[in-house]
Design brief:
This protein has 4 helices and no strands. The chain is mainly alpha-helical. α1 packs across α3. The longest helix has 27 residues. It starts with a helix and ends with a helix. The model has no long low-confidence stretch (mean pLDDT about 90).
């Protein structure tokens, strides 16, 4: 029984790592540069390059993936571009309503 559980947990970990890798590399393969969305007369090329360095976009893709994976596993999901606050705060403020709706839908399904 224990051997089966350890085997299944190992399979789940490998599947999650493959999922994380596919997600990251598909998103990373998109054309363009995220810093180009800040095009305005006041946003200089030096500021754009500094933002690229701060976001780690000047590093090799493998290094970026490992940093992203480490941050994701630690709960550091970055900053929301639309709300100008950490993503974890956005998730925490929306999670109660989402969980409530999920529970209501699940209960309704059973009855």
């Amino acid at each position: 029984m224990w051997k089966y559980l350890v085997n299944r947990i190992g399979q789940i970990i490998v599947a999650l790592l493959i999922f994380f890798a596919l997600t990251y590399f598909i998103l990373d393969a998109q054309p363009g540069d995220i810093t180009l969305q800040y095009r305005s007369p006041r946003f200089t090329e030096e500021q754009r390059l500094a933002l690229q360095r701060r976001m780690g976009l000047d590093r090799p893709v493998g290094e970026r993936f490992l940093r992203w994976l480490g941050n994701t596993l630690q709960g550091e999901l970055g900053d929301s571009f639309t709300e100008n606050k950490p993503v974890i705060e956005v998730l925490a403020e929306r999670a109660p309503r989402t969980i409530f709706l999920f529970l209501i839908a699940t209960l309704t399904q059973f009855f």
